[in-house]
Sequence to fold (1254 residues):
Amino acid sequence: MVIAVLALTFGQVMADLQLPDYMAQIVNKGIVRQNNSLIFNTGFRMLLISLLGGACAVGVGFLASRVATGVSMNVREKVFAKVESFSLREFDKFSTASLIIRSTNDIQQLQMVLIMLLRMVLMAPLMGVGAVFKAYALAPSMTWIIALAITVMVGMMIVLFAIAMPRFKLLQQLVDKLNLVTRQNLTGLRVIRAFNAEKHEEANFEKANVELTGVNLFVNRLMVIMQPMMMLIFNLTAVAVIWVGSHMIDTGNLMIGDMIAFMQYAMQVIMSFLFISFIFIMVPRASVSAQRVAEVIDTEPLIKDPQNPIAFPVDTRGLIKFDDVTFSYPGADSPVLQNISFTAGPGETTAFVGSTGSGKSTLINLIPRFYDVTGGRVLVNGIDIRNVTQEDLCEKIGYVPQKGALFSGTVSSNIKYGVPDASDEEMHAAAKIAQASEFVENLEDKFATPIAQGGTNVSGGQKQRLAIARALIKKPEIYIFDDSFSALDFKTDAALREALNDETRKATVLIVAQRIGTIMNADKIIVLDGGKIVGTGRHKELIESCDVYKEIASSQLSEEELEGILGEELA
Amino acid sequence: MSDRNAAPPQKPGGPGPFGGSGPRPGGRGPFGGHGPMMQGGEKAKNFKGTMSNLITYMRPFWVSIIIVLVFAIASTVFTIVSPRILGNITNQVVNDYTNRALYDQITSKLPKGVTLPPGTTGAELLKQAPPAMLKKIPANKLATIKALDFSKRPGINFQKIADIALLLIVLYLLSTLFSYIQGWIMSGVSQKITYRFRRDISEKINRMPLKYFDTKTHGEVLSRVTNDVETVSQTLNQSMTQIVTSITMIVGILGMMFSISWLLTLVTLVILPFSFGFIGAVVKRSQKHFRNQQATLGKLNGHVEEMYSGHNVMKVFNGEKRSIEKFQTINRGLYESAWKSQFLSGLMFPIMNFIGNLGFVGVSVVGGWLAIRGSINIGDIQAFIQYVRQFNQPISQTANVANILQSTAAAAERVFEFLGEEEEIPQAEQPVEIKSVKGAVEFDNVVFGYNPEKTIIKGFTASIQPGQRIAIVGPTGAGKTTMVNLLMRFYDVNQGSIKIDGIDIRDMRRSGVRKMFGMVLQDTWLFNGTIKENIAYSNPEATDEEILAAAKAAHVDRFVHSLPNGYDMVLNEEADNVSQGEKQLLTIARALLANPPMLILDEATSSVDTRTEVLIQKAMETLMEGRTSFVIAHRLSTIRDADLILVMDNGNIVEQGTHNELLSANGFYASLYNSQFTVPAVV
Fold:
């Protein structure tokens, strides 16, 4: 492919370089010697060559677009597959937003530059060198004109871009700032109006607007120099060639046709230098993108399947054991989790509570191997989870994330996400338990109702319920609820928990919750504080024995509720 | 003269940094894409109307615009004239050169050693020449020879050439200068228009009812402020000067071409339909693929975004393979449309080039033939070829301008649509102002719906005494924020009225109503500024002592001291350098500083750790003291202690009363309450 591009480019350049020579012939031999047939013959040949050159250019274009888009397709696929294999640790390292940009915009940018490069990076130097040789062959003593023109042009470009480049960056920052101010104005509309601060916001905007306009104006006025200056350089070169050329004609060292041809070659050289300087401007920009993409491809996920995975034993179900587990994020001073040991078995509900940063979400993220432990081990059904395939492990887990995380598709495709071949009956059953039936039935197309990207067309509570149904339909051995009830109102929360109770009787249930009400009836409550277990037991035991738990509970329930409703009614 | 000759360097691709306006936020780099010609893009619904709006908008700049046009025309005229003059130099050289060739030819026939007296003309010489020789001389050269002075070998007249060259250089310099002046002024005009558009939009945002923003995403509005405005100014800049220069160029070049040779001009014009046909065909085909490419790219980006942000879910449900398969399918599709659109748009250049060469060869051949017959000079052919080259550019530009204007109109239409959106109904003519607010609120048979056809609050009446605490409860989605919207006059009631201290809030200024309330919502809104600025937002005139007092009362002071730079710490863009709980405390401090007679609070504290939650509660208690407070309640203690509970469901207020009253009524509230605390089974 590359050789073909090279060959075709060569053909295209050669054709372009031939034409002025033929023109010179028409002038020198045809017109001056009054040879009509020579003019027609040469003209015909020129047409053929130009057609050939055009065909080569089309060929280059064809190959360039296929190669560039093909390469970008492969890179895109590679990056996507790589990111899909990442663990959350790599996601933390890059940030989700950055990974999205790297997989989309950066690759798109690369493709664009690649096409341009394939079309120009070969052509421009070939053309430049070829034209210089041709011009030199015609009139060696005039080549200084070309050198001068190029020096002036390149010098101008360097000066312009040296001044403009930092401002281009600044411009981007100012656009971002204007966006930021506007976005803040929009998201805070109610607050702004509540405090009658519209004028304040307008002043902020005005400031950003004035700044942006100022820099934009400067850069614009700088860059409009380019076109007229280029014209001037071209034109003055032409005048210089004629002036010097006519002296050479006078001394009999140059033919008129050759002078005209020389002018053409001079233009070709200047054009190719112009292209080359474009390349020098483009490549650094593209290399930033290339680097960002390469970083992703070169990153090996820390969590991989073992080389010789073992299978889970068939006789145990959903037994989770944390054995002296310690976990710290890379580069962090202190571990997030320290010496965590506990066991959770089937038929049991184990709840985790603690303040923000106590490590409870991190703890349950270790079970599906979103992260790997840095010390100790996590056992499922008696086997260290690092010794089984991730697929086998996840097969056993029904996970409900905090924010729902639905995918575009339909209600049905979302519920069936984990089990694509589930029957409609199973789907209805799962939706019913998750308290989603009622609102789904009220939707226009029921289970066939489309879900927008990110589930933006259903409310937070509805998202959580669909996410719960998605986990339920798997009938997994292990349920993980990561603060999955927070967007539900009390009534739905309670009804859901009651329905879940039957469904999860045989499974191991792990719950992370902020609300004490959600977890106070769990079989085992594990209280975390600063990454350590500070209490284990039932609600009643902990309220008496664990200070941290008591503090959490009392912040959410009044004294009366703590003693009265909880103490008596539930006892 | 082959391709790429003295014609002005054309911009090889789309709008790059050489288009004269720097990088665009849309991110097409230099050479990016293939210009608007290939994009085709959207069309305005009402082209004429939008254009006349735009012209009205540009009216303040008409003087500048006229100057721009004059300079553009002047610079173009110089551009048009110069090839002809350059051709004259060539003619001079050629003339002098042929004269000398004739001299050499004839003097070589003379006997050796003959010296001719000064002033011997060719006519005299020819009288002595043999008739056989005379016959060989073509008729058109005879006159030249007769006039030639044979006493000395003629040289090239450099004085004359220098004169013409000097004239040319002056013309070029003037043209450059004018062209730059035009660009300079036009940049100013287009930037000022952009600035005004942005400012108008920003001010417009604050005059529009919230209803608009509740139904539109922020992205849509943002894209008007940046992308659409940018498109308008860019394309305006381009199209305005291009229309004028292109038309001047076409007319001028045609005139020059005809003045050189009508036959050559005809040859050139015959080629034109071909180029239009080709370009049209290519554009039509590539546009289809471009649209496909854009659509597929959108799909692909959507999938990437979705899968990355739901990564853990995808993982744990073993969706990796399926996700990659889906990606591959979309990616293949993208490849198909991408290479086709890239290829087709890339065809443009070689095709135009070939057509250019076609014209060039045609002119060379016909011109050469004409030159032999003596009816045209070489310099004129040279000039003519330059004109042919230059002719293509304004023609494709004019074709392009139509497209550019379409996208200008489409973008401008969206901006004007936004600027023309309905604004908040005007204030009362003589707004009532309450001097000292007691805080009595009366709902008198309030009927309201976000959509006039769909009433959600169906006749609500309640009377609230100063200092009372009102709890608003209900399941999620019950419409609790509607109450906030109505009290703050973000929305106006459809029927009935809301009165504060006996005065209908519609008789007051909106700002007056809002000043009476302090608002603390779950959605904490802080801006990119220091902590101090954020607290003082509610009362810019507050002294440092007052700010500190408010911060202390809201338990902000404690955590601020553990932050770098304390009160001067700048909250970043997402305000995620303080925790959610701390943000909530900050909003409470902000409300405290405003010292409003009434309050609207949202108790919800999700993602807040429990210790901070205690602080938030304490701070809210402080805030509510002695103020009429509307609380979107989540805590039972708040609900039970409330003077009045408003129970909402499906947007309507279904019950009201105190905790005990409502419990004994055994209605919706009772079942809501019982479901929370008496269901024995908990997962």
